[in-house]
Every structure is written in C-alpha cells, then in structure tokens.
Design brief:
single chain; 0% helix; 73% strand; mainly beta; 14-stranded antiparallel beta barrel
Length: 244
C-alpha cells in the first residue's frame, strides 16, 4: 500500500500542479488505485472595452473586469493485473472537469498501460493515453478533443560502486497541438542511488533536468526536481511516497 503526494510550481509559479494518489493490492496479481489531479493557472485578467458598443481605439481601451483562475481536475480509477510472472497490464478511467469563470467542461478518458520484465535488469513499458479520443464538452456547446498518444519507455539497471544505477529512455508518438514540435520527442535520464541518496539527471526536448531523492526510512521517500526551460521560467517539483 502506498500514498503518493506531488506539488509542482511550473514556470516559477505560473502553473500550479498537484497530484495525490493511493494504491493498494488485493492479491499478488491485482493492484488497485485512485488519484486526484489539479492543474491551475491563477490571476487571469478578464477584460472588456470601456464602451463595448464601439471599436478598439486610443480612447476606448480594455479594462479589467475580473481576475479568474483556470483549473483542470481529473479523478483516476486504476487497476492492474499481473498476467504472467514478467508481464503486467493496467488501465485508468479518468473523469475530467475544467472550469474558468462561468465556463465549465467535463469528459471521460481511458489510459492503457503494459509492463514487461525482459531480464532481471531490463524493463520495457508502454502507455496508450486517451485511447478513445477523449472529448471535453463545454457548457457553451463547444467540444475539445484529446487525441491518443503512445509512450514507449525502457530502463536498464546496473550496480556499480556499491550502489544502483538506472539508465532510462523514452519516446512519444501522437498528434501535438504545436505543428512545429517534434513528432517523436525523445528523453533520456540516469539515476544513481547509494544508501539513502539518489541523484538524477535528464534530457528532454532540449531541456535539462536535475533531481535529488532521499529515503531516510524504508517506508518514506522524498524527491525534488529542477526543470530548465529556454523560453519560460524554470519549474520546481516536490514529491513524496509513504508505504504502509
């Protein structure tokens, strides 16, 4: 049984990202879990023209009518099953709710994943996100669609210097909102753990990440991550795991 907590100040606090999840086994083959995600952008200025009936001009400028927060929520209900000793599959049903001012939207999505242990030190994972073309319905009768995306990842573990080193890489395929973005972004990372300390370095989409992990007790671990961004400010992420 494990409780996971995460808080992130993305782009120096412009985006607040929080996540809490709890997972528990019911047998040696079945695992279940649920989670709550919130992503919010505060301090958005809503404006209108001083004279809404006239066009924009030097004497008819926008004025701020309210300060709003845009927030996305998702509730996850997850389950996983070990099909064979080295092969597991899982799925998550997610209920999505979005709100900003008087506008609200909702939708339901499905994620599917699989995990393969090819050798004691070699793993492969697959995730198909939004497998059913997640549709978000707004109260303005408009719809947003989240297209499916496929993530492939692998990791290899070695044990040098009396510790443990994990080398990982992943790529993602799927339609992006940015037409100029890389259709198959690649990321690579390395983690070395010795006693209670873990050091992590990563590279993703020309951005560098660095992280530190501490596990002062067998049932408690804490992590902090710094994520670089070329155009926006940097991101800090804090997380913790508590096992029961």
């Amino acid at each position: 049984k494990q409780l996971h907590l995460m808080h992130s100040e993305r782009f120096s606090g412009q985006v607040k990202h929080d996540f809490i999840a709890y997972a528990f086994p019911t047998s040696n083959r079945y695992q279940w879990g649920f989670g709550l995600l919130r992503v919010a952008v505060p301090d958005i200025a809503f404006t209108r023209l001083s004279d809404p009936g006239a066009g924009l001009s030097e004497t008819n400028r926008p004025i701020v009518t309210s300060i709003e927060t845009s927030a996305d929520y998702a509730i996850y209900f997850s389950g996983a099953k070990r099909l064979r000793e080295h092969w597991s599959v899982g799925t998550s049903i997610k209920i999505i709710y979005r709100t900003i001012s008087s506008y609200q939207a909702h939708g339901i999505g499905l994620d599917i994943g699989s995990h393969f242990l090819l050798q004691p030190n070699l793993r492969i994972g697959l995730i198909l996100r939004d497998a059913t073309n997640t549709t978000i319905h707004w109260n303005t009768d408009a719809d947003d669609k989240i297209n499916p995306s496929l993530i492939l990842g692998t990791s290899y573990t070695i044990q040098p210097f009396g510790g443990r080193t994990i080398i990982a890489a992943s790529t993602k395929g799927g339609r992006s909102a940015n037409k100029n973005s890389n259709p198959f972004p690649f990321s690579a990372s390395i983690e070395h753990t010795h006693n209670i300390l873990a050091l992590r370095f990563g590279h993703e989409d020309d951005q560098q990440n660095i992280g530190i992990g501490l596990q002062p007790y067998p049932s408690i671990s804490m992590d902090v991550t710094y994520i670089q961004h070329e155009e926006l400010d940097s991101t800090y992420q804090l997380s913790a795991n508590i096992s029961f």
